[in-house]
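Two records follow; treat each independently.
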Amino acid sequence: MKTRIWSYPVPSNTTEGDNVAKRKYHIPNTQEPFGKRLTQLRKASGLTQVELAQHVGISQRMVVYYERESSHPPTHLLPAFAKALGVSTDQLLGIEKVKEIKRRDSRLRRRIEEIEKMPPSERKHVSQYLDRIINSWKAQHGKS
């Protein structure tokens, strides 16, 4: 990865020892467009475009735009995108590598949300059924 170094001209009234005079900014040259990175991070986190839009507070159409058409990230939305995707803004921008994303199973989450809407007596039956399945799986795989 190539790194561009930006340095600003030293004002004539500064001395060699001034930190301001020696300040340099390292900006990595990321080859991957923002939209492609956003798409990969969204898919890796198990979110649909609609779900990401809801987390960020924008329309699904805007998510499509940022993923396909925009090569420049929406700076005012970067913190919200990063939080929704479980990454830092530096990782979202491609400055840092993404180590691991905690993957969410959105189908399972939607099912749990549906179960939570059920009346308590029905939730109890679902819970008992799930307990039997989990205990059976643990017994087969030697888990306690």
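The next record belongs to a different protein.
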Amino acid sequence: MRPRTAALLVAVAVGCRGTPPGRAQDIVALVDSLRPGVERAAGIRFRAAPTVELRSRDQVRTYLLDRLEKDFSVSRQEGVTAAYRLLGLLPDTLDLRALLLELYTEQVAGYYDPESRVLVGVEGAEADLLRLTLAHEMVHALQHEVLPLERIMRAGSNSDALAAAQAVLEGHAMVVSLKSIPSAAAMLQNPELWRMARQEIQRQRSTMKVFSTAPQVLQESMIFPYINGAEFIRWWDSAHAGEPLPGPEALPRSTEQILHPARSLSRDNPVAVAFADSSADVIYEDTYGEFELQVLSTVLRGGGEVVTEQPAGWGGDRFRVYRSAGGPAFVWYLAFDDSTSATRFLRVTGARLGARTRSAYRRTVEAVTVAGKPGARVIIAPDGWDRWASLPTSR
């Protein structure tokens, strides 16, 4: 599960300031002034002038609450919360839906709504932050001229594929928006920019009170599409001269391909892992992917920086959360590229996961073959779960 945020984290990182525009016509004028530079930097032109609105923070909160209701259904909320708690990524007392709403609204200065095709500026946002944010969101509007954003952003029950697509869109918008503003464009010449931006975000945690107290999995999920996505776009620009961004068929299929772009070029796509048994009592089903696997590994070893340079050998995965009388049950199948990667997972992350305890729960982490590849099966379920006698299987 990845939160979709309208906050432009890099804008916070570079410390934007200024007097907020006070009128709707000021926002329209700002977008008009930004348009030539954004179009030139993106290599895409608007077919018509974008529709622009100035909205209050209360209006924005209402919009984001509506988006949360649509994107985060009751069953998804229940399943994601249960899985994260059982894996040790969220405390049992945390209200995930309430926290996500606060994360969505913190630091928001503007956004693009693909359903209405409207660019929104938020009343009271600092001028420089609003300028950079609107340039970023204008890129999303330009992406909509050449890509079916509504379809791309509805990845069904594959959060890993959705995170990969988001990373391309947000990374592209990050790079283009910086290119379009002369005072910011010079930063792109620094090869250490995105590493520095990540460090700066951590240093300025005090300016993002909700973000700074969120569990690491949520923090990393918010940063990933912007920073790792921008790093992917830098690679894409060098490998695909003249192509502004990947088309629908060339979009990365997994976060593994975002983290290790060469795998995108070779179309090293994940295997399809699926459950073979009945879906009765299933609350939620999804795919985690390499990035979330790396976050889990980091949390289980005590936190710190999520190191992604070394591939995990992830080849695909699928998990389910089942309803049971004793509480939710979690079953996760992972496929790996080779036996070395599978063994490394079992001996390190799997061992740490298996060593955790939970009252009235039992857990197993074992080697299995998944989709014809070396793999692992993780089960965390109540002691009295009736399916312990006939475990769910993969195909």
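Discussion point: The beta strands are 51-55, 110-113, 118-122, 282-286, 314-322, 329-336, 361-370, 373-382. How would you locate this feature using only the token line?
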